[in-house]
Amino acid sequence: MAEALVVVSKVKAYVKSKGCNTAAESIDELSGRIRCILDAAIKRTHANGRKTVKAQDI
Question: For position 12, what pLDDT does the model report?
């Protein structure tokens, strides 16, 4: 699996603060979803002739 794109300890702390535990595979899934979001944002950025991903692209 690819490298995590999230700070695992921060994700686990957030989930724990809501009264739940974090399964290891949830970090991989979360990172995968972030990759999809970023890939789409990068595509929009290029389509608009820019190199900087902005909030509006996400």
Answer: 96
